[in-house]
Amino acid sequence: MSKKVKNIHDKKHLTRRTLREWGWGYVFIAPWIVGVCIFFLYAMIQSLQFAFHRVELSGGVILHPLENGIFENFVKVFTTDVNFPTTLANFGIGLVLQLPVIIAFSLIIALLLNSKIRCRGLFRLIFFLPVIIATGPVMNQMTAQGVASVPMVSQNAMLGMLEGLPQFIYEPINNLFSSLILILWNSGIQILIFLAGLQKVPRAMYEAATIDGASGWETFWKITLPSVKSLILLNSIYTVVTLATGGSNEIIELIYSATYTATQGYSYAMAMSWIYTAVVAVILVIVFLLLKEKSDRKVVYEQKRVDMKGV
Q: Which residues of the chain have a pLDDT value below 70?
């Protein structure tokens, strides 16, 4: 058999094996796809339809056209609503502040738990335990009792220096410090993901770096951080989604209250929810573009361009 015929045979075999693996993958995720199509996509399309109509609930759902155009509800959200635009801006700024804190804390704790210390399993359980017990009612009860705040911050020892800032900046920073412990409690899943990634890094790489005289700081930047860079993107997306859908989210509470208000109604609440969904989607796209890994072709191109400049 010639080399060319052998290569064609190998490609056909690889293609069949790949298709077979894809087929089994789709079989395993089929229940999830069916569930999403039945219980999620239909409701999502229906809510979008409600946002462009006036909904009347009398013996069923009756849709009426809006008097001032199909975008009337969306315009009213920003022109007549006082609380929603401000709360949405506070959410965006708060998310920008909370995301790096959670990712950095999760990575540091994962590095500590991956080191050779006694009772590592116990410490892993301690950091993951809030994910299990800190449900909505438990979290609200803890927040009401002041457990989630740092005592020094509660006494305005640190926030007094920020009083000169504008209100839309001061308030998210105030919320960050006043619920700092609560924010760190949301790092259990991220810690486990980082820990799983760190355990897959070959120990031989660290041993070779140590033999070459690399310090711990250099080892972190040259080996550890590049190894978990994809996990940073994954944890960032997970954190954004978790914070956006959390039970203590003020925007979700506004949407709930608008749903059952006579002056606003269901269609107005759906417009609010779609605006919120669009904002979260934009944030996710920005996070993806900032943290995604560069392709090998682009890295080689940039390296060649740097070499040409050096010449």
A: 1-14, 59-61, 120-121, 126-184, 247-248, 262-263, 294-311
Please tell me the predicted confidence (pLDDT) of residue 165: 61
Full 3-state SS string of 223-273: HHHHHCHHHHHHHHHHHHHHHHCCCCCHHHHHHHHHHCCCCCHHHHHHHHH
Distance CA 281, CA 161 (A): 34
Domain ranges of the chain: 3-51, 72-310
Does the pTM exceed 0.90? no
List b or e across 208-247, with b for residues whose CB sees 16 or more CB atoms inside 10 angstroms.
ebeeeebeeeebeeebbeeebeebbbebbeebbeebbeee
SS3 60: coil
C-alpha–C-alpha distance, residues 91 and 84, integer Å? 10
- Contact between 175 and 153 (Cβ < 8 Å): no
Of 92, 39, 40, give the one whose Cα is nearest residue 284. 92
Q: Where are the alpha helices (DSSP H) in 2-115?
A: 3-36, 42-51, 72-79, 83-114
**Pair 97, 90: CB distance under 8 Å:** no
72-310 has which fold? MetI-like fold (1.10.3720)
Give CA–CA dist 123/130, Å, rounded: 12
Contact 293, 226 (CB under 8 A): no
